[in-house]
Amino acid sequence: xxxxxxxxxxxxxxxxxxxxxxxxxxxxxxxxxxxxxxxxxxxxxxxxxxxxxxxxxxxxxxxxxxxxxxxxxxxxxxxxxxxxxxxxxxxxxxxxxxxxxxxxxxxxxxxxxxxxxxxxxxxxxxxxxxxxxxxxxxxxxxxxxxxxxxxxxxxxxxxxxxxxxxxxxxxxxxxxxxxxxxxxxxxxxxxx
Length: 192
Prior knowledge:
Strands 1, 2, 3, 4, 5 and 6 form a six-stranded mixed sheet that branches. The two termini are 18 Å apart. This protein has helices spanning 5-9, 13-23, 43-49, 85-92, 128-152, 168-183, and strands at residues 27-36, 50-51, 56-65, 72-80, 101-103, 114-115. The longest helix has 25 residues, at 128-152. The protein has a single domain (5-117, 126-182), classed as 2-Layer Sandwich (Nucleotidyltransferase, domain 5). β2 (50-51) and β3 (56-65) form a beta hairpin. The relative contact order is 0.18. By secondary structure, it is of the alpha/beta class. The chain contains six helices and six strands, in the order ααβαβββαββαα. The mean pLDDT is 87.
């Protein structure tokens, strides 16, 4: 089961080019989340996975979806916890056309071809117009949060990951494939 639209078409180059061209018509939504993991036994490894934001050892995953959560376009899974969202996005952006536009939260400020909400200036306030724009922006972006919620319905993708860490990618990508099947974006070929 392919975990994302790009994974589904990556083996056929002509289909991959067509999908990239079709995706240019949409403004894709991107967001990431962290999942706790068991503390690694080796000191060097545990330092690499310790996320200061969550105050625990984590895996970071990033999801790109179509507007209104119609499909999972691409997924990055199992990155070390302290990796920033914008650096993950910059690596993932190479899979898309250079003109592809994205929507992200404030963690993606400074990214190329990505729109983010207005940030409150230091010792200042946002204008009423900026607040209204942020509200509209968040109402369009909420669908990626719903997609992440669908992923976290599976306990293996939400609670502390207790299996061996080398199986993490396979497990989460399988969950993404099941979500695509559930929302109806993955159509399996009929067996004759």
